[in-house]
Design a protein that fits this description.
Shape of chain A: elongated
Number of helices of chain A: 16
Largest interface: A-B, 75 and 77 residues
Helix content of chain A: 40-55%
Strand content of chain A: 15-25%
Largest sheet of chain A: 7 strands, mixed
CATH topology of the largest domain in chain A: Rossmann fold
Order of helices and strands of chain A: EHHHHEHHEHEHEEHEHEEHEHHEHEHHE
Radius of gyration of chain A: 25 Å
Number of strands of chain A: 13
CATH superfamily of the largest domain in chain A: Response regulator
Oligomer: homodimer
Structural class of chain A: alpha/beta
Number of domains of chain A: 2
CATH class of the largest domain in chain A: Alpha Beta
Chain lengths: ~350, ~350
DNA sequence: CTGTTAGCGCTTTCAC
DNA sequence: GTGAAAGCGCTAACAG
C-alpha cells in the first residue's frame, strides 16, 4: 500500500491555458483583485478548482520581493513573559531570516487602554502583521478594528479581545485553565477536608478573573469538603503576596490547598515555607509539603519548586509555542494560506515534576 | 523600543562579489560540494559569516525544481494510531501541496524485524526522507544506517532506534511518561494504601517496558504505602485485558490504582465497571470511580472515560504534533536548515477532564 | 577548479 | 479588461 497525499505539479501557466487567459489574469483572480470580467473570473476559478491547483508558495514568496514586517506589541517593564517571548523569537532568527521575515518587539503600557490604543493606531501601515497582548477595552477594540480595516493582520496574544475583528487569538481558554487548576487541587488534596486559598494579581485582570471563575466552578460543584477563602490580591508582587498569604495561613490552620493565579510565586512559596509561622500554628516544620500548591507557568522558579515538591503542579501555556504560533499565523494570514488550527491551538499543559519540559 | 530580530537582505550575488568569486562557487561552498580550492572555500565562508548571510529558502526551493518525496513507514493492520497520523497528514494536504511536498504512507509489519528491515532496504533511493515507526533490532538498525548512508533523511517516530544513526527521534521519553503516570496514580490515590495493577500490551515492547520501568521507579521510591502487582500482559487486546484484570480485581479487593500502559482500554474499563464482580468483592456498585485509573493517549474512548470520571488522567503524545513535527524535521533536514528543537520536541501531556484538547 | 547561463513559478509593472 | 515581459534569488547544467 502506498497512498499519495499531495500530488499537484501544475503551474499558473497551465491554469491560464486551460482557462484561455493570460498569467496575469489568473493571478488577479487568485488574489481577488479587481479588473476582471465576472465570467472570466468564473472560468478561471473553475479551472483552478477542477485541478485543485495550489500556487507554489516559494515562487510567490520569491516574486513579491519585499520582506514582510511583523511586530509583537507587548507589556513594557521587566516582564519575564516578554523576555521569554523575545528569547523564543531569537531562537527562530535563522528561520525568520531565511524567509525574509522581520519581527520587531514593541513595548507599551498594556494596562492603560488609551495608551495601548494610541500605540496601535500609530503603527497602522507600518507592518504586515501585529501580535498584540491586548486589553479588552472599547478603545483597544476600535484600534484593532482600524488596523484590520487598513489591511494589517492582527492576532491577539495571551489575552484576547473577542469583541474585535482580530484575525486570530493565540492563547489558552483561561476558564478551562482555572477549572483544570481546581480539579488538580481538589484531586490532590484527596480525602482531607479544609480550606483553599487563592492568590491572584488582581480580579480586575480578565485572565485572572476567568481563571478564578473556572476554579470556583469546579470547587463548588465537585469538592464540597473544601471551602474556598476570599481571593487575596497580591498584585503579582512577591512581598505583598507573601504578607497576605502568611497572615491568612496564620488565621486558618486548616488550609489544605492553594491556587496561585498569577505571578508573585516567590512570595507565595516563602509564606508557605515560613517555619516560624508554621511552628506556631500547626506545630509542623513547614507547611510547604502539606498544602497542595498549584500555580501557573513554568519558569526557573516554578521549575525548582516543582522539583522540591513545594509546588504540586503548574498550569502552563508554552510561551515558545505561543511565539511561534503567532508568527506562523501572521505569515499564513499574510500569504492567504489556510491556518492549521490544530497546530496553532495553545493547549493547557499540566506540568508536574516528572513531565517538566 | 523597537528591536529588529531578523535583518539580512543580501543575496548570493553580494557574497560572490565580496569573496571575489562567481555565484556557482558560493553555491558549491554553501552546500559543501567538492571542487573548490580550500582557500577559496575559506574566503567564501568568511564572507558568508561576516554578513551572517542566510540564503533565501524560497528561491532555493523554487530553483531546485523537483518535488520532495517523503514516506511514513507505519504498522500495518487497522491501527488507530496509523489512522490518526494519516488523518493529520490529510489536514496538511494543502500545506504540503503548496510546498510541492509528496508524502506517502507505507504499511509494514513493524513487529517483524526482518520484514521491517527488508521493507526499509527496498525503499532506498526512492525518497528524500522517511519517518519510521521502528523496532529496536540489529537488522533494523542496519537498514536505517544504510538509508542514511545513501543520503536519505531518516527520523524515527514514536518508537526510537537510538543505536542507529537516524537523524532525529520524534516521540516522547517513555521512561518519563511512566514516571508521570506513577506520580499521578500515587498522588491521586491520596492517603489510602493498597495495591496497584498494571496492564500492558507486552513487556517485550520497548516503549511498554520503559513506561513500566518509570512507573515502578516512582512507586517504589515515593509511595511506600502502595504495592504494585505483577504486570498483566493484555496484548493490547480488549477481551484478554478485561479477563485478566477482572480476575485480578476479584483476587485483590484492595486495588486502589490502575495503570494501563498500552491499548485494550475498552476491556480495562469494562472490567473496572463490572457490577456483578464488584458486588461480590467490595459490596459497592462498581469500582470504576474508586480505583484511580491512568492510561495513555486521547482517543474517542479515553475522552469519554475521562468525561465520565472512569479514567482520571491520560498521558498523551499529541499525534498531530508528531505527524507535523516529522514532516517539518524531514523538510528541514532535506533543506539543510537547522531544526527548531523546542518546537519539534514532543511533550508528555497530562490530559484530565478539564484540559481535554 | 571556476564561471556563465538558462530557467524554477510566481508578481508586477506597463502596454494595449 | 487583459496580456507581455522583466525579474525575484537561487540551482544545475555546461563550458572553459
Amino acid at each position: 500500500m502506498a497512498e499519495t497525499l499531495a500530488p499537484t505539479a501544475l503551474t499558473l501557466k497551465d491554469i491560464a491555458r486551460e482557462a484561455g487567459v493570460s498569467l496575469a489574469t489568473v493571478d488577479r483572480v487568485l488574489h481577488n483583485r479587481p479588473g476582471v470580467r465576472p465570467d472570466t473570473v468564473r472560468r478561471v476559478k473553475d479551472a483552478i478548482a477542477r485541478n485543485s491547483f495550489q500556487p507554489h508558495v516559494a515562487a510567490a514568496e520569491l516574486a513579491r520581493g519585499r520582506a514582510r514586517r511583523f511586530a509583537f506589541v507587548m507589556p513594557s517593564g521587566p516582564n519575564p513573559f516578554m523576555q521569554q517571548i523575545e528569547a523564543y523569537l531569537g531562537e527562530m532568527a535563522a528561520w525568520l531570516s531565511a524567509r525574509r521575515l522581520n519581527v520587531e518587539m514593541i513595548a507599551t503600557d498594556v494596562f492603560e487602554p488609551a495608551a495601548l490604543a494610541a500605540s496601535l493606531e500609530a503603527l497602522s501601515g507600518d507592518y504586515d502583521g501585529l501580535a498584540v497582548v491586548a486589553l479588552d477595552h472599547p478603545s483597544v477594540r476600535a484600534a484593532i478594528n482600524d488596523l484590520v480595516d487598513a489591511g494589517t493582520k492582527v492576532v491577539t496574544l495571551v489575552s484576547d479581545v473577542p469583541s474585535s475583528r482580530r484575525h486570530h487569538y493565540v492563547g489558552i481558554d483561561n476558564i478551562a485553565a482555572g477549572r483544570t487548576a481546581g480539579a488538580l487541587v481538589g484531586r490532590l488534596v484527596g480525602q482531607r477536608s479544609g480550606k483553599v486559598a487563592i492568590v491572584a494579581g488582581s480580579q480586575g485582570l480578565r485572565d485572572h478573573a476567568e481563571r478564578i471563575f473556572g476554579f470556583n466552578q469546579v470547587m463548588g460543584s465537585e469538592f464540597p469538603d473544601l471551602s474556598v477563602l476570599p481571593v487575596l490580591e497580591g498584585r503579582d508582587d512577591d512581598g505583598r503576596s507573601e504578607q497576605l498569604l502568611a497572615r491568612l495561613l496564620g488565621k486558618h490552620p486548616d488550609i489544605v490547598g492553594l491556587y496561585n493565579v498569577g505571578a508573585g510565586t516567590q512570595g507565595v512559596a516563602k509564606a508557605l515555607n515560613d517555619k516560624a509561622l508554621n511552628e506556631k500554628t500547626s506545630g509542623a516544620a513547614g507547611r510547604d509539603k502539606q498544602v497542595v500548591f498549584v500555580g501557573h507557568d513554568v519558569t526557573a522558579l516554578t521549575r525548582r519548586l516543582l522539583l522540591q515538591g513545594v509546588m504540586d503542579a503548574a498550569i502552563s501555556q508554552n510561551p515558545g509555542h505561543e511565539a511561534r504560533a503567532a508568527v506562523r499565523v501572521l505569515l499564513a494570514l499574510a500569504r492567504g494560506e489556510p491556518i492549521l488550527s490544530e497546530q496553532e491551538k495553545i493547549r493547557i499543559d499540566i506540568v508536574m515534576r516528572d513531565n517538566l519540559p
